[in-house]
Structure formats: C-alpha cells, structure tokens
C-alpha cells in the first residue's frame, strides 16, 4: 500500500501517535507476534525437513552397518579434485538433482582455511559483495599459505577415497581431510579431528532454478517462490537460494559468540539438551526489537556470524561470512561417530558441540580458524576483518545521554552541574528531538538557537557533543538532504525497482539512502563535513541509530526483503550489513572533515563483523531492572568474543526508572564496559548522577572517577586490541584457559589481563557476593590492596559503597590520579604505576600514550613502554614498535613534562627502605616512608620524577 499527499501525512501522524503511546507503556514486554519464529521462515523449514530426513536415514543406515553412518546425498564428483596452488578445488553434487557445485578450499596464512561454494554454473549471479565489504582490503590482500607448504595425498579407506592436504607452520601441524562419499571435511589439528563439516550430513544447497511455469508445473518446495508473514508478502523473484551446513567442534563443550542475543556467554543448546535448551535456534537478523526478552536466542540489533569454541587445550573459531538472514542450531553430545564416519578406524568418545548454520542467500563462504590459543585465534580473525582501530581518546570517557536534553540551556546546565559535583565526563548527547522535525543534520532553532556557541562552551573544558543522525530521511521536498538524494536517485528502491522504497520511522514517511551504492555512500559521508552540516564543529560526533534498518510499518519492523538495492540486489542479500554500511559512511565523513584527518567517533546500533573498524556499538534498548543489568555482562562479553570490542549497554537501563541502588550498581558495572554511556527513555524521570542525592551521588562519583583514574590502562588496552585483535573485556576462560570450572562464567570477567571484575548485581545490596579467583596467584583488592591467594572461592560481604575488583598478581597498571573535568584535561597529567607483585616476586605491564586524536601515531608519535619488575627492580623500556622518527621526537617533546609521579609496589614481602633511581645515567636515592600505608606489604615511591618517555630503572632495597 502506498499513500500519497495529505492521507500519507495523516496516517503517519496516527502511526506515530500509536508508536509513541506504545513506547510510553513500559513493561509490556516484546510483542512476539511482530517477529518470526523459525517455523515461520520457509527456508529454515525446508532445511529442518531435510535435516530430519537425513537423521532418519542415518539411523536406518546405522542399523545395517557395523559403524554409524551419515546419509548425506552430496558427494564429490569423481576425478574433480585437484590442488591449484593454495586451493583445493572440487565439484560436489546432490545425488538426485545432479546440479554441480564448485567448492574451493583455500589455505591461508596462520592455518586459516577458507571454504567457498556455489553452483558451478549459476543461473544467476549470487550476491558476493559481502566479502568486499567485510574483509580487510575487500579480501584483495589475504595472505595465502605458500603452495610448497601444502601436500595433497589421496587414500582409500574402507573402499572410499579420502583426500588429505597436510601442512605445517610454526604453530600447527595440521591436515584437512575431505571424504568423497558423502562429502565431508575434517580439520585435523595436532592429530585431532577438531572442526568437522557435514559430519551430520546436513549440508544442503538450494541451487538457483527456473521458476516453474504457469502450466501447472509446481516446484513443490515449501515457500520457495513466495512467502507471507502477517500482512506482508515476500515475492522471492529469484526463488530458493539458501544453503545450510553442520559444523561440529569435536572435543569441545562450550561455544561462544554469534552476537547479538540476550543470552548466556556459553551458548545454549537449541535442540535436545533438556530444560536448559532453547526451543528456537539462535537467529542472526538485525532487528529493532521493542522491549526484547532476556535469556533468548531471538535476533537483536546486530549480527556477527563468528563462533568460538574453547576447551582446556585450545581455542578455535568459525567465521560464516554471510550477510543474509541466518539461523544457528546448537546441539551437544558425546560422540563416537566422528572417527567412524570416515571409516578411519578411530572411535573417540569426545564431547562435541554440533552447530547447524542456515543462510537465506549469497555464497557459502566459511573460514576455519585453528587457534590454538585465544591470542592466536584473534590474530587470525583480525587478519580477515581487521582490528579495532585506536579510538579518539575522549570516547573512553563517560558519556552523558538522554532522550532528550531539552535545549541549549539544559545541555549547558548539565555540563555545569557535572563540573559542580566534580564528576568528570567527556561527552553530552542529543537525541532525535534536537532536530527540526526529525530532519537529521538540522537543528530545532527554537531550542538550539546557537549550536556552535554551545559546542564552543562545552569544548572549553574538553567536552564534546554527539548528535543522533538516523538513516531514515524524511520525505519532504523542502528538506535539502531528501531533495538531493532523491534528485540523484540515491534511495533504496521498491520491489519493482521503479520508485523509492517508502516506509515510516520517526519523521513519518521516509526514504533510505542506499549505501550499497558507493556514490550514495560518499555523498552521505560528505553531509557530515563542517561546511555541509550546519551548526556542527570539530567537537561534534555522531550516533547512528535505527540502522537495522528500523521501519515501523515493515515486516518485523524492518525493510521488505524483496526491495531493491544498487545493482538490482535484493535487501535480503545484504540486510545484516546495511547498518554497518551506514556506520562506515558516517565514520568516513567525520574522519575526512578536517585536514589532516582526525579520528572519528560514531556509535551505531546495528552492526556486523567488521563494524569494529567504524566505532562503538551498544546493546540497544534495555530496561531499568536488575535482570537487564545482569544480562548486559554476557552481552558485552559476547560482542568482545566476536571482535566487536568497543561495546557497552545503556547505564541505568533505557526503559523505566531505576531505583537509586540500581543506578549506583549500574555505574559501578558500567565503568567496566569498554563504551560507557548513561542513557534514558524520553518518558523516564531525570537521572543525572546528582539527582539521587547522597549517598548515591558519592558512590556514582567515585565509580566514574575510577574509570578516569584507569584511562591510561584502558587506552593501552585499546592499543593492544588495535595490534592483536584481543578483546578488551574477556571471559575468565580467555585469561585462564584451563580453568574448566569457569568456562561458562558470565557474572565476572576480566578487563584486559590484569583486572578481574565481580559486579554486584542484586537488588539486596548487602547480599554477600560469590567470588572465585582462579589459578595459583596473588590477587589484590584494587582499592584496599588487601591480598588474596588464588585459587580461592568464597563469599565477600558488600554494601553499596563496595565493588569487588581485583588486580592480578604479576601485573603493572598505569593510572592518572588527579581529578579533572575530562580526559582531554588529563592528557599531560603525571602517571602513577601500581606494581602488583606475583607469587614469584615479578610483574609486567605496558603504558601507551599518544595525542589521542590524530593519526600521527601511525608515524611513530607515541610513547609505548614495557614495564617490568623483577628482583626488586622496576624497569621502563621502549616497546619494539618504538622507533625514532621526526613525529616521535615531536611527541616526546610535547610530553617532556609528563612524569611518573608515584610508584606503588603492592605485595612485597620484605620491608624496603630505599629506592635507587637511574635515569639517563643519573642516579638518585629516595628514602621510603610507610606513613599512611594501608598495609605492611605496600610501599610507595613518591615522586621518582622519571619521565614517561625516558628509559629508567628503580631498584628497591
Ligand atoms: C531507539 C534507540 O535505541 C534509543 O537509544 C533512542 O533514544 C531512541 N531510538 C530515540 O532516538
């Protein structure tokens, strides 16, 4: 239905009224009927029916054979297998339909294996731009294994041919085994079949086909050429083109990742698995889910099809590179079938997690990442999709947001009040109401008569502004953005491809720019430039919301799948990257608005693998209750597990009004989210930190100050992530890979490798908290410095002032201890180093500093120190990446007054009396005093006066 003119306006006003009143009624819970279950999705149903058929036949086969067998109809065509450089090529075919599929298995650097498959002679091209838009350099510069490190042999085992490609590199002795009948692939790592494809026989590829004629010939396949959901019809002009495959992790009980779901960290079974299991598969389909459920595999705002499996020996990953709707079923079993399947004579009773992935369209493109450590696996993943770049430093500070700060005066009052209450913050945010009638890039001039003056006032104390710029463009001929995009033909088109796709969102009737069109994407990027975006200054940054995309009157509150994008592609092919393409365009715009370029900051709600390159994400619309507070931990962790590091949840909970206790606890947790923002729905009461009065204000203030104190540690962590791909916040297992009892731990977590956080998440704030400190190591309460020896399992008493945070023995943590109003104002502040001594009397750490805003660090303008403590001597040396360059010298000069003002050694057993400091060949001695010390085992070297950029050592005796 398309309405035009005044009718359309009326309807959209009505619709908005309904939406707003719905939004106002907090506590209704998700409207399940708005979203599909797997049973309501035809391609899922077809794969399920296929899988059930295979399972049944496999059971029959099993009865007649001595070993268990799998009844997959797909086999490798005889003589089709050959090694072409770094790629094993083969053709496989379904026994009945005989349509050949071309399969390539490529061997990449670091043991990564890539498997791609589609029709050998496709009737129509399949959407294959996902790789260009997601992979590093568009996939053009992937590093392949050298052809001579690969060896192909073929064996006959029990009358069946097995092709084996063996390879060796520094970390792996591995082989990939491919059986012909049925087609299966086994990735054998250190002699163990670890990642198995099609071992359950669920591989099923719906080849493109001619539409059955009107002469009565019926295709028979369920929902293959048309499908309806409520009042929407998906016309499916290309017919069925989905594919599915089972991927089993043999020897593993836990899998993680595939955000975004409000689920546990260790993913649950979705088939079998008793009471704990979900009755639906995990779904990956970016959706705006109003008041979403908790403990659910339902799709949410972002999708990253990257799964990680971990056991005490190794960590491996699977990246399923596909941007269409995808479902993942998970089952667990003790399996003895795997070795037998290949009739290789081995039969192990390994625990196995089997997963079944089904995507609606596109090309089958899968990466197997062999680890073996988590650090190895993240380097492999980063090779594919890049790391998180170093963000603008202010973005690590505290973000103060609400829907909405009413006007300019309100903004400046909040700014003043935060300063008055001595609460540091970096950014104040403006939601949709700041615009002229939800026309983004404009201002409501009544409320914001002088946005530039407002930003200048904020900037005076180092504060920034973020404005929301949503992707829906109000249909209004008088609105420059709409008119230009319309004139240039930049909007996404309707199903027929002959007019703009039209839908409803905040402004009423809207169109959406088609970011798949590179010209349209660079046009929208330019709109963020200072000369285009009126009222913006270099202190303004951007928030992309509703970019799943959210379409109020569309199927599942999104776009119809059969509408058309650039190149004639259907929305279904790229739905899950649509939000990321907008995030990218926005980031590009902010990055290039100044010369030389500066680091941008953009927050996005929708995301995909690769989004980490463009900025931060948050978990969307949560609620002000304790359950949501708890759920945010596995949600933020799962994002980090999947490489989306810069993530957070709305502190305080978006819907509803938090109690002062909840608010306090949420700040105490939120300071440990990589992205730390308080936000609130328009209908909630004001809740800036001072609103709650004492003692809450003091607790909130000290939490926020704790974040600022640790900014040097956070920034150094981001630096590490930007080089290695390692998560910022980590599940406990990632730091303690053999701590099997903590593999599903998701109420405590690590920040980097040095800090363990055990948040208080109970409404009864005096409730004792279960603490588990792994491994045989010292742990120190980060505030009192009281020492505990791990492994330890006990309850700790709490009150509202207390949060349980422990520093791991053996780490050195850099801080800045002076209170300032913003991160910018702290930039030249001296550093304090905390040395938390391990059981063997040692500690190591790192400190990274740069100018926090430009790209000069890429030319060497940074200070990166390796800190180590051994034999009572603390040493600061330059990192291997430090090299003399004009840019570095200039930065060192700028930092020439920044010194280490204090060193606190925690956990020394012997009393110490003096410190001998050597810097630049100069020696001085400092007498140590214990006055004011909390513990005998703690000693402070006050003002060693060494410069952060210099080599120095401090010896204690
Ligand atoms: C939905 C977002 O999730 C929320 O954070 C925002 O406040 C509203 N849209 C209004 O823009």
UniProtKB/TrEMBL annotation:
Gene3D superfamilies listed in its UniProt record: Glycosidases, glycosyl hydrolase (family 31), Golgi alpha-mannosidase II
Entry superkingdom: Eukaryota
InterPro entries, per database record: DUF5110, Gal_mutarotase_sf_dom, GH, Glyco_hydro_31_AS, Glyco_hydro_31_C, Glyco_hydro_31_N_dom, Glyco_hydro_31_TIM, Glyco_hydro_b
GO-annotated molecular function: alpha-glucosidase activity; carbohydrate binding
Any Pfam family matching the protein: Glyco_hydro_31_3rd
Domain Glycoside hydrolase family 31 TIM barrel positions: 388-717
Keywords for the protein's UniProt record, in alphabetical order: Endoplasmic reticulum, Glycoprotein, Glycosidase, Hydrolase, Signal
Signal peptide start and end residues: 1-29
Subcellular location: Endoplasmic reticulum
Principal subcellular localization: endoplasmic reticulum
Gene Ontology biological process terms, A to Z: carbohydrate metabolic process; N-glycan processing
Similarity-based family: Belongs to the glycosyl hydrolase 31 family.
Listed name of the protein: Glucosidase II subunit alpha
Upper taxonomic lineage: Eukaryota, Fungi, Fungi incertae sedis, Zoopagomycota, Kickxellomycotina
Gene (UniProt): ROT2
